[in-house]
């Protein structure tokens, strides 16, 4: 709660950020995050940068897990436009609950740094396509052991920062 309170002052908006995402079976739901961008100019705030670096802004998604719209591990939920672009076999990623972390989240842990100064096409043409491939592979080859490995790897990456 303290982080949400600080984020409210830092971003000049509500401390919680709400956004529609696409989850299980293509159903939309509201995802929760701590607000990291200024309401005035859509720039990442100083406190927001700190939260993003440690992935702390994602903590409210445990509410989504408790509500049953997300799991801890699974493909990250896309915004509506990207989810609509999934075709054929790629739609398999919508057959499971989206997760807070995944193989794709691990591979692109520093995605903001990779995209800094680049146009959106870099994301669509390279990163998003690779994430879909990784997420589909996860769905097709799921194991409990793999989920544990993803959780532990995510924790290690966060602690390294």
Automatic annotation (TrEMBL):
Keywords: Transferase. InterPro entries: Bact_transf. GO terms for molecular function: phosphotransferase activity, for other substituted phosphate groups. Residues 4-159 form the Bacterial sugar transferase domain. The keyword Transferase applies. The keyword Membrane does not apply. It comes from the Bacteria. PANTHER family: COLANIC BIOSYNTHESIS UDP-GLUCOSE LIPID CARRIER TRANSFERASE, QUINOVOSAMINEPHOSPHOTRANSFERAE-RELATED. Belongs to the bacterial sugar transferase family. This is Glycosyl transferase.
